[in-house]
TrEMBL record:
Xref: Pfam families: ABC_tran
Family: Belongs to the ABC transporter superfamily.
Phylogenetic classification of the source organism: Bacteria, Bacillati, Bacillota, Bacilli, Bacillales
Gene Ontology molecular functions: ATP binding
Protein name stated in the entry: Lantibiotic ABC transporter ATP-binding protein
Origin superkingdom: Bacteria
Classification via NCBIfam families: galliderm_ABC (TIGR03740)
Organism expressing this protein natively: Paenibacillus cisolokensis
InterPro entries: AAA+_ATPase, ABC_Gallidermin_ATP-bd, ABC_transporter-like_ATP-bd, ABC_transporter-like_CS, P-loop_NTPase
Domain ABC transporter: 5-228
Keywords for the protein's UniProt record, in alphabetical order: ATP-binding, Nucleotide-binding, Transport
PROSITE patterns the UniProt entry points to: ABC_TRANSPORTER_1, ABC_TRANSPORTER_2
Amino acid sequence: MNDILRTVNLEKRFGKQTAVSGVSLHVRAGTVYGLLGPNGAGKTTTLKMIAGLLRPSSGEIWINGKPWTRDCLREIGALIESPALYGNLTARENLLVHTRLLQLPESRIREVLETVDLTDTGNKKASQFSLGMKQRLGIAIALVQNPKLLILDEPTNGLDPLGIQDLRGLIRSFPARGITVILSSHILSEVEHTADDIGIISGGRLRYEGANRHGTDLESLFMDVVRADRRKEGAGDA
């Protein structure tokens, strides 16, 4: 299976602080890739570079076997941090803004609303949506240009158990629709139930990458990787 996304020694520095260092990801087409790490590990910074929201300090990003350019954004949809919604507009009106900006047919609006199960919201304003509905509308916006790669940063944050389960099912449905997903989270159980492959970032570095095999004790693996990294960092400071 070909990699739809590959990064090579990706690095991001903010002044003298290095947030991401030497990250080389391999995301297979037609899969859900779970990017795990403690808070502040560099997950969001990595995803922002892939989505074109931050410029890498060094390293390479490859999309479908080609070096990243602005044209790659046509193949990438992203929901990073909170969805940017117009609270005074309905779900359909929010999507209409984006289809017009991107010069897409309005038929895409109903298609993506059906995908995220928001066709029955009618005239309800986005400001009145539950958190789960807002997340799904944010995903609909990310899907409107029919991307090949969907980036989701902590999409289940703040959701109740039912909302988490609904979103999990939605994410798992994307590979069958031809959409590869890279999903970041610090909630191990969500990645364990959702991802085909996992990467673990700690201290800005990719410390582990491999298949999420059935029966893997992901919590033990995660803790072993992060603790080993912290011991190494502690020894380096000594």
